[in-house]
């Protein structure tokens, strides 16, 4: 009886320890130094087309907010990409609310009998009381084993980001699994209505529930390029063999060797987009975007404003450049954040030197890095009809060339 009594007293601690174990060493997977969560959902009875339609429906329902958006879909490849933007709430009361915004890229690829999901490019914006601007973090600098754990225990601040992120990833993977399980159940019922059994809903990744469709880890694809602390801390990018048509003063590098600190530069208004139609060229400073791999292609995405004069050029252009600058060009970057009217002398007055790439795109020689892109899609960020003229749009492009000084 005493043993049972002591076991009863210890039970809450045992359950808590089991729950905490879910967030400890190995809970945040890293691939080549990048945080990448991935999952394979097996569906032996379903075709690529069936899985694609199911996942597109799920993604359309979930990513339908002003900043949540399905940004890429290609039925013949079974490919879907979504930009996630939502809150992780740490604590909430009548007097206080502690939460962070999390942004990420969700990649879905469907083939016959299988669906692969991958989440990468995770970054946070955390509002704090002691400053006006939010603190910005990337997953690689904030929730990894090396940063968020000490003696296999969660540190207080990065630990809550780690737990909140893992819980969100669990929810997304479970929701997607239940969507496919429901389709499998419906298919089985149609084939054999007498013997078909109901598919149990998955309620938690850690719960002892065995779904009808087994779920197993997928070998992660190349993850979204993530930020590191400073430019100086970056490893020297791998330079490609000498190539023709490289702008003077630059060296060509592989897309997967783009320095990770450009994510931070994108957030700090150190990136410009330059677009030309042959007769007219315009440029603007952007403050949000990312780079990575989607469907075996290196891609870059950025947020543009429809109210800017450059918007019409972006609409009609098939390619463009993204260029990155040091703080020495802060005045030029700030001055061109809000170019809502046409100014034929703006390039000349900027003090920057316009150059032309071998593909006919424009950039500026003062940039320390230039990324040349082929446009894949341009979609309204809020996804509503009759959107206001100053609404934001998501520009997604395939990276064609990368040049670094």
TrEMBL record:
InterPro entries documented for this protein: DUF4468, Split_barrel_FMN-bd
Highest taxon, organism lineage: Bacteria
Location of the DUF4468 domain: 37-124
Keyword flag Cell wall biogenesis/degradation: no
Any matching Pfam family: DUF4468
N-terminal signal peptide: 1-17
Keywords per UniProt: Signal
Official protein name in the record: DUF4468 domain-containing protein
Organism: Parabacteroides chartae
